[in-house]
Amino acid sequence: MTKTVIHIVDDIERLFVIRWSNNHDMQQIHDWLQEEDAQEVYGNFLCNWNLTQQCHEEGTLLVLIDVIEGIPVAYQWSQLLRPGILQVRNDWRGKGLGRLIVQYCIELALQQDEMVLEIECKPSSSIPFWEAMGFTIIKGEFGETAKGFKVLSKELALPPGGRPALVTISSFPEESKWREGVPAIVSYRLDAIFADDEKVHLSERASFPKDFRRMGRDPVIEIIVDDKLIFRDKAKYQTAQAHGVKWCRNGFYIDAVTI
């Protein structure tokens, strides 16, 4: 998939293309990374070149091309589905190019039903950018790099006819199974339709992140339809899937509840 974007840089409309990298891009990117490294530019990722090359070989390296000059001016690893680098060429920074790539990653993720993006805030000076892009930042402990995630939303078409319903779907930390009063991580209260297929179709996809704060814990999902508890247990269980839970790389989501 390739996208063409008109973007204003220094009060001038410029044409950009976002696509997967090719070998010519890699040579040009390596050249400007070496130049920046020699100039001791802050935030230069030449030191990670082997991993950048690996992403290219895997077909997961996005590049932003300035069409007029015919050069890559930014690149990103793995479309924000796992922690990686977003690098903008130093003399093109501060012009909104990082935002273009993030918006494109969101489009790709939605097309693939990937509802949670994941980042690593390295260097830490990138945190304000990621916060401006709507990411929840988790501060690193004991010198660890801060991480972040963004839960995407998607409106859904309701089937015609059927009976209106009100659905509340929430995710909780695992300890809510043995401790009372544990607050929800995320909660949705959605209009829905109880259709002829015996499913309750939601007006919006209910999307949830994995528990980024306490890795290794299993989130609990609670589904309530018209004030009636339908399910409350770990989202990873097959019984949860039978009620409509679907997993993506960094979380899970529900489009319709099976009663």
Describe this structure in words.
- By secondary structure, the chain is α+β, with helices and mostly antiparallel strands.
- It folds into two domains: 149 residues, Gcn5-related N-acetyltransferase (GNAT) (Aminopeptidase, 3-Layer(aba) Sandwich); 96 residues, no CATH class.
- 20% of the residues lie in helices and 38% in strands.
- It has five helices and 15 strands.
- The chain is elongated.
- The mean pLDDT is 93.
**Number of separate strands:** 15
Named CATH topology of the largest domain: Aminopeptidase
Taking all Cα atoms into account, the compactness measure Rg is: 21 Å
What summary fits the major beta sheet? 7 strands, antiparallel
CATH homologous group name of the largest domain = Gcn5-related N-acetyltransferase (GNAT)
Largest beta sheet: what is the strand line-up?
A: 13-12-9-10-11-15-14
Stretches with pLDDT under 50, minimum 5 residues: none
Q: Determine the mean pLDDT.
A: 93
CATH domain class name of the largest domain: Alpha Beta
Question: Which CATH architecture of the largest domain is right?
Answer: 3-Layer(aba) Sandwich
Count of DSSP-assigned helices: 5
Indicate the percent of residues in helices.
10-25%
Number of domains: 2
The percent range for strand residues is: 35-45%
Structural class: alpha+beta
Reading the helices and strands in chain order gives EEHHEEEHEHEEEEEEEHEE
Distance N to C terminus: 38 Å
User: So what's the overall shape?
Assistant: elongated
